[in-house]
Specification:
alpha/beta, Rossmann fold, 7-stranded parallel sheet, 3-stranded antiparallel sheet
Length: 245
């Protein structure tokens, strides 16, 4: 694992965006695995700025997202498709027919997961998979468990994740209790993994995930087994592992 220490959130966003930008420039028809949540927003803003400046062309890029809430339509402001459209897709010249997320409107979980697995197989290997890090160590919506789930599956969100996401909804009752998410095997199949982490509140999780044992109780710890992972994190997020670097 390569660790890039950054001064703050803006520096983290800039350096992570540079890594994705280089991928798009070197391979214009690359497959990008994308993530949602508050952490990648600065990175997406940087990519949009690069496009506006004429430095990036997304016209041949394909994207696959990690997850989507079960039960939300694409038009729902809290859906991850809406998030991606607001923060990146509508700001660049990407072909939206080449942007894929699980179908949150499909009530049949087995069918929804099977369909997304078929899409993932059809687009080919992901060149860079972007990840954030949950407070409980989840990546995508792969929550702490007794074993690593492999492919796309329907997950019941933990109370900690529901509480972390309630700030995006009018009330806690509005937060979906289930989501479709890529599995650990799918995430680990990417050629390269780019993990972005910011804030002192993630420092203990960073320590547990990357300097502790590999365990499904801390899903992100499995990234220790991948041969090409870049962790871009600010000083606050790395504050508990300084002596270990």
């Amino acid at each position: 694992m390569k660790i890039i220490r950054t001064k703050d959130y803006d520096d983290m966003s800039r350096k992570a965006a540079n890594i994705i930008s280089a991928q798009v420039v070197l391979k214009p028809d690359c497959v990008l695995g994308l993530a949602t949540g508050s952490t990648p927003i600065g990175l997406y803003n940087r990519l949009a700025e690069c496009y506006d400046n004429g430095d990036l062309d997304f016209s041949q890029v394909t994207t696959v997202n990690l997850d989507e809430y079960k039960g939300l339509t694409r038009e729902d402001p809290q859906s991850y498709y809406y998030f991606m459209n607001e923060n990146l897709f509508q700001k660049v010249n990407i072909n939206k027919d080449r942007t894929f997320l699980p179908d949150g409107t499909e009530p049949d979980s087995e069918k929804a997961c099977r369909q997304y697995n078929e899409i993932l197989a059809s687009v080919g290997q992901v060149d860079i998979q972007l990840l954030g890090l949950g407070h409980n160590g989840h990546i995508g919506f792969n929550e702490p468990d007794s074993f690593f789930k492999t492919e796309t599956h329907c997950v019941t969100l933990t109370e900690q994740t529901i509480q972390a996401n309630r700030r995006f909804f009018e009330s806690e009752e509005d937060v979906p209790r289930q989501a479709y998410t890529m599995g650990i095997k799918t995430i680990m199949s990417a050629r390269r993994i780019l993990l972005v982490v910011s804030g002192e509140d993630k420092a203990e999780t960073v320590k547990n995930a990357f300097f502790g044992p590999v365990t499904p109780q801390v899903p992100a710890s499995v990234l220790q087994l991948h041969n090409d992972v870049i962790l871009v994190a600010d000083e606050a997020a790395l504050s508990k592992v300084g002596e270990l670097l």
